[in-house]
Write a structure and sequence with these properties.
The chain is mostly helical. The N and C termini lie far apart (about 30 Å).
């Protein structure tokens, strides 16, 4: 038995889409007003530097609005 699961980098709310709500959750985590669990933190670290910060939130927002394409 096999299962296929696609997870999008930046999709911290798990709705299978990268959107402004994800960027907001990442920004809230970066500012300390919301804590992401370990898996969501991994997805929120968009640039892969080991930290979830405002740069990740900005990048996810740019992806969500189409001003930045992602792989």
């Amino acid at each position: 038995r096999t299962s296929s699961c696609v997870v999008n980098l930046g999709d911290v709310d798990g709705n299978k889409a990268v959107n402004s709500a994800d960027a907001l959750d990442i920004l809230k985590h970066a500012t300390g007003s919301k804590k992401l669990d370990a898996k969501k933190e991994e997805l929120g670290d968009y640039n892969g530097d080991g930290k979830v910060n405002s740069f990740d939130a900005l990048t996810v927002l740019q992806v969500a609005t189409g001003s930045l394409k992602y792989d």
